[in-house]
Amino acid sequence: xxxxxxxxxxxxxxxxxxxxxxxxxxxxxxxxxxxxxxxxxxxxxxxxxxxxxxxxxxxxxxxxxxxxxxxxxxxxxxxxxxxxxxxxxxxxxxxxxxxxxxxxxxxxxxxxxxxxxxxxxxxxxxxxxxxxxxxxxxxxxxxxxxxxxxxxxxxxxxxxxxxxxxxxxxxxxxxxxxxxxxxxxxxxxxxxxxxxxxxxxxxxxxxxxxx
Length: 211
Ligand code: GAR
Known about the structure:
Elements: E1 7-13, H1 18-29, E2 35-42, H2 48-55, E3 59-62, H3 71-84, E4 89-92, H4 101-104, E5 111-115, H5 130-139, E6 143-150, E7 160-167, H6 174-204
Helix pairs in contact: 1-6, 5-6
The protein binds glycinamide ribonucleotide (GAR).
Residues 13, 15-19, 49, 93-94, 114-116, 128-129, 132, 182, 186 line the site of glycinamide ribonucleotide.
């Protein structure tokens, strides 16, 4: 699709930012054509993801969890930052703070999240980062993967956009599984989902049809 206008995206991060990097790389390689990464927001001032954004020439903001320990004021600051920057689509890429219904209801079908399992397995409250892979290994699943979904008021409960499976290797550690799930699934499906939803926003202004 030839479209001059691009959807303005904010990526919300807390840590290393390898998923952010995958999105930034995808805007260079052409996997993402209909979105521009306008802003990276971190709740952690020390997140390496901020350095990745700066290296790519993307504006950054910190809305510190420590500075705003109360959920309502934290989210009010987030909303202010998003609105000041004209953000149309929010991507949670390793963002480790749960957002309340007050926040998610403000952006229906405009927030994406990447989760490192095949939802509905190993997801919801308490399942984040390495804990997800530890749970998958201790259950003994042979296949895991990653999911990109819309964010609603239920943690990891919004409509699924893309999933990709990864086979578990015999005797592998949670750390090794985490790396493989990122490389073989998350870094592929997250940029694709950003492009998919951005294209749909530009086409019909609404994103995918409600079920
Ligand atoms: C990723 O594996 C992401 O799926 C996970 O945290 C990691 C962040 O890595 N997110 C969650 O567990 C959210 N429930 P990154 O900072 O290198 O992108």
